[in-house]
Design a protein that fits this description.
The complex is a heterotrimer of chains A (210), B (198) and C (461). Chain A has seven helices and five strands. Chain A has helices spanning 27-37, 45-48, 90-100, 102-109, 121-130, 147-166, 172-188; strands spanning 4-5, 8-16, 52-60, 79-87, 137-140. In chain A, helix 3 crosses helix 5 (121-130). Chain C folds into two domains: 6-242 and 439-455, no CATH class; 245-338 and 375-437, no CATH class. Chains in contact: A-B, A-C, B-C. Chains A and C meet through helix 6 of A and helix 6, helix 13 and strand 13 of C. Strand 3 of chain A pairs antiparallel with strand 6 of chain B.
Chain lengths: 210, 198, 461
């Protein structure tokens, strides 16, 4: 099933954006503005609703003209692309979004053709499915862990590294005792919040000019 | 608007394909999906968190009526969405250096594809057909694909060790602990500020 | 591939001279006319890549320019703008990309590098203090007579002398200078391990275009180069970095860690670098130095990490493994062939032997130079992704133990095994052992290009 890789689901949604000449600014620009101000960290709608590993929203203005001898053609509408890499089952994921962050969904998809609103969860799921495109080939580096398991594992990794380095050279009896305390503390610490942990890395990197 | 969130970059690319060529590409993806060793190189490149190819047949763009004008396209389109670690240049350099055959197999069906080797014309092509991300979210911005794999290794090693070491005497504990450290020692790279101090 | 013409290439690009003394002179030019005249005067004195069939000369002379320096000759705008972006920006403005922040940020640099006045680097290498003085005096005379430049400063450097003999050591006590890459067509004493890996596991020279502009590079194309072609060909880019070394801190931390590490201090030092202090690669000799191995050019750079994927012999984050991963990333080394750099450099400042009092405040370190065809693809990449970061090594954010910009929070993991003399060990809270005190990006032109500059005939098509 091409949309699925292990326990991760590759959701690809293309929603046609309302083309209303009388709207000022136009609907696609309104979406862009909303997205520009939407938080990407712990307050992101995808952090508040469960199950999203990575997701993006892109206003796709048009198809590309690669130059002669290819033909030039254009889309009649703009489309809002929603690419999500999420846990498990499509319907429960969409229902989770509709129930947790309906105001964000309405603010974004309210500019799209035929959007019924997130209040009616079934209608919302139906709408999303109508806009869904089948993912032809999906690759996931880690495809068998949920978001929660991943966040826990990252916390564990840091905690273990700190523990090993701080207890280097301690005598075995003490070590054992300290380890027991460590496990208790680790088990009782809640997993980090999704979307958190974007540390200020000294190097500004990622661009094309490098 | 940003293509980058933490350590991961969101690339969006779209290329036109003559509809008869789309079937060949679908065939290739079917083989790729079924024959796991073909994916080995992709996995070993280990800087892609998630990637997908989406073929949009020209008549299959969502049409919801309600005033929307129906599309009238000649080409099918291949959409590519990648979530990768590192810089744009590093990513394309790496693919061009080690996966050129695979890249060619996927994109040669797209119009005016120049080939993935040499790398400069390939980068120009990508730059032309890449479009930017408006909103990019990741649940773990401080972790790369390698960090994720390491984290899961440490988690499962810790769980086994915790179980194994219950009720051991100090010397035995020390020996098991050493084995545990050796198992995780290559996976302890720092990923960021710990919100809770251990 | 086309045959190299060593008389057109500056010798500094093709081989390390192995002369014990150096002076790097930094010039500022304010009149294009007079600067051209000076260049014309120096042209005949520039040391080329021609082999010395008799003895080494008493001194050598080479010259390179920053982007501002090239602009001071009033080269055409089209040429100036065709240089790669990173060269136009200069090293100071690329600080965000290089990780030159905190203690390495330009606020801590020597004054000379802050004003943007450095236009040219003139490299004098010499056999003796008198030869150096003569060469420098001659340079000053040319400058005086043409009024073509002013000296804004210079950096003296010299090989470290121990017991009266010059050695290839640097201030932390490590023997340096191994592993400069081999390039196709560049004649030098080459040894296995310096080039790239072939699918059969042998070593072959890298494409010439990884070092020199105008030749095919490892990606099967000509590297991006300024126009006109004739101006760029046989030239290369040089990165100059003045790296201050905190010898006191290094020795103190190594003593502390060495006392806690059951393999001992020397072994820990070897784990950090990937070579023992005498240069023996720890991958080949995990337990102790090996004077026979290190003297044998067929062996001392001839190794791969394939059998040591877990890092138990040579740690995954050690310095040499970071800057030359060999086969550690798989794919027969193809991911690293375009990330190789040629290093030149000389220690500066007085050497203090182990055990004697030394201070971090003393002025000592290494004048470090890198030669490569593409600063951003080669040097900047290695600095950003392999020195100040660890993802390719699968080590998260961890930095190079010796050179990383740790800021007091660094961590270095020594992978070990069940051998009590080779345990896993973590060094924490690493400080900056090395601090950046300045530098810039330079273009090292061919002899032809220097002639074109001198005559003012650079003409983009």
């Amino acid at each position: 099933m091409a949309n699925q890789s292990g326990s991760v689901y590759g959701l690809t949604i293309l929603s046609p954006i309302i083309d209303d000449q009388k709207a000022v600014p136009s609907h696609d620009l309104q979406i862009r503005k909303y997205l520009a101000e939407l938080p990407v960290g712990v307050d992101s709608p995808f952090a508040l609703a469960p199950g999203t590993h990575l997701a993006r929203l892109v206003v796709m203005d048009d198809v590309i003209y690669v130059g002669m001898p290819a033909c030039e053609e254009h889309l009649k509408s703009k489309y809002l692309v929603f690419e999500s890499n999420c846990d498990g089952d499509l319907e429960s994921y969409l229902a989770g979004l509709a129930k947790t962050v309906p105001h964000h969904l309405d603010a974004i998809w309210g500019h799209c053709v035929g959007y019924p609103g997130a209040r009616d969860v079934d209608a919302f799921i139906g709408y999303m499915k109508a806009c869904q495109i089948e993912t032809t080939f999906y690759f996931a580096a880690v495809n068998d862990k949920s978001v929660l398991q991943t966040l826990r594992a990252l916390q564990t990794q840091r905690a273990v590294a700190d523990f090993i380095s701080e207890h280097q050279g301690h005598d075995p009896a003490h070590l054992q005792q300290e380890f027991t305390g460590f496990m208790q503390k680790l088990d009782s610490t809640p997993a980090p919040r999704p979307g958190a942990g974007n540390i200020e890395r000294d190097i500004k990197t990622g661009g094309r000019n490098e | 608007m940003s293509n980058i969130n933490g350590k991961v970059y969101a690339m969006n690319a779209i290329t036109p394909m003559k509809p008869w060529k789309t079937w060949i590409l679908r065939g290739f993806f079917l083989v790729l999906g079924a024959v796991k060793p073909l994916q080995a190189d992709l996995i070993n490149l280990s800087f892609i968190e998630f990637a997908r190819w989406v073929i949009i047949p020209r008549r299959k763009l969502p049409f919801l009526g309600d005033g929307q004008k129906p599309e009238d396209l000649q080409y099918d389109y291949l959409l590519f969405f990648s979530n990768f670690n590192g810089t744009w240049n590093q990513y394309i350099d790496a693919f061009s250096a080690v996966l050129s055959k695979g890249l060619n197999a996927i994109w040669r069906w797209s119009e005016k594809f120049p080939g993935s080797v040499p790398v400069t014309p390939f980068k120009e092509y990508i730059a032309r057909l890449q479009f930017d991300t408006d909103y990019y979210y990741t649940a773990y911005p401080q972790a790369t694909a390698n960090d994720l794999k390491s984290a899961h290794t440490v988690q499962s090693a810790l769980e086994s060790f915790a179980k194994k070491s219950e009720g051991l005497g100090p010397q035995q504990f020390r020996d098991e602990y050493l084995r545990f450290v050796i198992e995780v020692q290559a996976h302890l790279g720092e990923t960021g500020e710990a919100p809770v101090v251990f | 591939m086309s045959k190299l013409n060593p008389t057109d290439i500056q010798g500094f690009a093709l081989r390390g001279y192995n002369l014990p003394l150096a002076r790097y002179v930094f010039l500022h030019m304010s009149s294009a006319d007079r600067a051209r005249k000076l260049t014309g005067r120096l042209l005949g004195k520039i040391t080329t890549g021609q082999r010395w069939d008799k003895a080494k000369p008493q001194s050598t002379l080479n010259i390179a320019f920053t982007h501002k320096g090239l602009a001071s000759f009033e080269l055409p705008d089209a040429t100036l703008l065709s240089f790669p972006v990173e060269f136009q920006q200069g090293m100071k403005d690329r600080g965000g990309i290089l990780g030159d922040t905190g203690l390495n940020s330009f606020e801590h640099w020597d004054e000379i590098w802050l004003s943007g006045r450095v236009h040219a680097w003139v490299g004098i290498h010499a056999q003796s203090p008198s030869a150096l003085a003569d060469c420098y005096a001659d340079l000053l005379q040319q400058i005086q007579e043409t009024e073509g430049a002013e000296v804004v400063g210079y950096q003296d450097a010299s090989a470290i002398k121990i017991n009266g003999d010059f050695t290839p050591k640097e201030h932390f006590g490590f023997t340096d200078g191994f592993g400069n890459p081999d390039y196709l067509g560049v004649e030098r004493r080459s040894q296995p391990g310096q080039g790239k890996l072939t699918p059969e596991g042998a070593w072959a020279p890298l494409a010439t275009g990884e070092l020199l502009l105008g030749y095919a590079d490892e990606a099967g194309e000509l590297p991006v180069a300024p126009i006109p072609h004739i101006f760029a060909a046989n030239g290369t880019f040089m990165v100059y970095r003045k790296l201050h070394q905190n010898v006191a801190t290094f020795r103190q931390r190594l003593d502390e860690w060495g006392a806690a590490y059951s393999g001992g201090k020397e072994k820990l030092a070897a784990k950090m670098v990937g070579r023992w202090r005498d240069g023996t690669p720890i991958e080949l000799a995990p337990d102790r130095q090996d004077p026979v191995l290190v003297q044998d050019p067929q062996r001392n750079t001839n190794f791969t990490y394939g059998s040591d994927a877990g890092g138990t012999k040579c740690p995954m984050g050690s310095h040499v493994r970071r800057v030359h991963p060999r086969d550690a990333f798989g794919f027969n080394g193809r991911l690293i062939n375009r990330r190789r750099i040629t290093r030149r450099g000389m220690p500066y400042g007085t050497y203090v032997p182990e055990g004697e009092p030394v201070s971090d405040q003393d002025d000592r370190g290494v004048a470090f130079m890198v030669l490569n065809a593409s600063i951003s693809r080669q040097f900047e990449f290695v600095q950003q992704q392999w020195i100040d970061y660890g993802n390719d090594q699968k080590l998260g954010n961890d930095k190079d133990p010796l050179m990383g910009n740790h800021g007091g929070r660094g961590r270095f993991v020594v992978q070990g095994d069940e051998d009590p003399a080779n345990p896993p060990f973590i060094c924490s809270k690493l400080p900056n052992f090395v601090e950046l005190r300045g530098g810039d990006y330079f273009f090292l032109p061919s002899i032809t290009a220097l002639g074109m500059i001198a005559l003012g005939i650079v003409d983009p098509r």
